[in-house]
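[audit] Reproducing an earlier prediction to check determinism. Same input, same settings, fresh worker. If the tokens differ from the archived copy the diff job will pick it up downstream; this log only records the rerun itself.
[audit] input (111 residues):
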Amino acid sequence: MAERPGTAVNLHGLGDEYLTLAQLEAYSKISGRQLRNYLSLPPGQALPCYRPGRKVLVRRSEFDTWLARYRQRGKPVLTRVLRELGLDPERLPDTQSPRAFRGTGERPSAR
């Protein structure tokens, strides 16, 4: 069966197809140049891929998992300092900033 250009190859079930770099660029909104940079990172950090011949394929689910490792909340410097102190930024409770109380006439009560 001949494939049309631009169609993803699906070998392992719905939503888990193999994408070319051009398709991955459209899916992720990351430039092709940057994707190639991610492919050339050291083995523990590199974007996982498959290279049948000269073609480069990336499994969508593996890309999503790889990208999730780089998810951040808040300022990177604050996250780094919390980790240096032995705290996990993902496990800290969400708190409102003091600015959330401006203009309401209320102040948070001191305990």
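[audit] rerun output stored. Observation attached for the diff report: The two ends are 71 Å apart (CA to CA).
[audit] end
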